[in-house]
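FAQ

Q: What does a record look like?
A: Structure on top, sequence underneath. For example:
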C-alpha cells in the first residue's frame, strides 16, 4: 500500500532541522514521509459528540468530548478576544507496543490547533508496526502541509519531551523533541503555509490513531497499554501560563477516542496539579 501523500507546491516552507550531537540521521524525512498518508481524516481531530460541561472549582470549565482519532486533552481560550497559544510542553515515557495488526500505529504528541480547525503544528514520538515488528521514532509535522516526518529512532522505555513554540516576531513555529535516555534531540523551525491559517486556537496533548492513504479509514491502533503524559503546561499571548487547570480563562476538553460503536482509547482525569493524565488503549 502506498504510504506517501503528494505534497502541495507550498508544502515545505523554509525550514531548518538541527540535530543534537550524536543524533541519528533523518529517517527518510524529506523524501518519503510516512503516516497521515493523505487521509483527509488524519491530523485534525474528527469529532463525534460533545456531551456537556462540568466546571471545576478553581479552573476553567471542563468539557467532555469524543473523537474518532484523538485521545487526551485540548485547551482553548475563553477570553474576549480569544488569546492564542504560544508554547506547549509535555514529557512521557515511550510505551512499548504490541501489534494487533502487522501495520498498526500510535502517535504521541503536543502541539497547537486541530481541535476546532484544520491545521496542526505538532511534534512527538510514534510507535508503528512494520510487518508486526515495533519501530519507535521521534517526529514532527505541519498538517496538512506535510505528512509525519520521522527524524530519530528511539527505544521503548525512553524518556521523551516535546515543545512547540510560536514566535510572533518571526511568525515561525519551533518544534523540539528530545530523548533524554539517548541524549539526542532535534529542533525544526517552520512557517505556516501561505494558503493556510495556523491560528493556534488550541493547545493539545494527544495520543492518536493514524489515517490510511487516500481513504476515510485508519490504520489499526497499536496496543500501547496505559500511556502517561506529564508536565503538561502551556502559555498564551495574554500572559497566562501553567498547567491546563491553572487558569480560569482556559477551557479544557477531555477527549475519548471512539466512534458510534467502538471505544479505541479512554482518557483519565488530570492530576491535582493539572499536569499529568493517562490514556488507556482499548481497541485496535
Amino acid at each position: 500500500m502506498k504510504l506517501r501523500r503528494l505534497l502541495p507546491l507550498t508544502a515545505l516552507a523554509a525550514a531548518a532541522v538541527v540535530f543534537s550531537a550524536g543524533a541519528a540521521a533523518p529517517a527518510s524525512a524529506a523524501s518519503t514521509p510516512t503516516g497521515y498518508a493523505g487521509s483527509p481524516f488524519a491530523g485534525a481531530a474528527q469529532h463525534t459528540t460533545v456531551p456537556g460541561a462540568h466546571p471545576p472549582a478553581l479552573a476553567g470549565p471542563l468539557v467532555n468530548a469524543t473523537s474518532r482519532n484523538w485521545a487526551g486533552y485540548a485547551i482553548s481560550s475563553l477570553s474576549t478576544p480569544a488569546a492564542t497559544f504560544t508554547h506547549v510542553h509535555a514529557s512521557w515515557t515511550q510505551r512499548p507496543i504490541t501489534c494487533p495488526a502487522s501495520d498498526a500505529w500510535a502517535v504521541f504528541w503536543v502541539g497547537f490547533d486541530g481541535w476546532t480547525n484544520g491545521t496542526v503544528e505538532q511534534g512527538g514520538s510514534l510507535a508503528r508496526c512494520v510487518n508486526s515488528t515495533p519501530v519507535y521514532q521521534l517526529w514532527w509535522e505541519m498538517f496538512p502541509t506535510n505528512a509525519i516526518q520521522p527524524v530519530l529512532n528511539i527505544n521503548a522505555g525512553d524518556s521523551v519531551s516535546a515543545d512547540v513554540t510560536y514566535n510572533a516576531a518571526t511568525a515561525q513555529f519551533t518544534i523540539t523533541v528530545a530523548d533524554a535516555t539517548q541524549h539526542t534531540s532535534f529542533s525544526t523551525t517552520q512557517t505556516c503555509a501561505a494558503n493556510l491559517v495556523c491560528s493556534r486556537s488550541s493547545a493539545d496533548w494527544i495520543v492518536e490513531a493514524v489515517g490510511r492513504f487516500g481513504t476515510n479509514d485508519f490504520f489499526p491502533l497499536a496496543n500501547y497499554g496505559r500511556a502517561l503524559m506529564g508536565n503538561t503546561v502551556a502559555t498564551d499571548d495574554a500572559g497566562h501560563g501553567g498547567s491546563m487547570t491553572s487558569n480560569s480563562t482556559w477551557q479544557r476538553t477531555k477527549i475519548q477516542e471512539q466512534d458510534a460503536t467502538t471505544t479505541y482509547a479512554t482518557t483519565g482525569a488530570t492530576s491535582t496539579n493539572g499536569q499529568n493524565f493517562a490514556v488507556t488503549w482499548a481497541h485496535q
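Q: Is there anything notable about this one?
A: Residues 1-16, 21-42, 48-57 have pLDDT under 50 and may be disordered.
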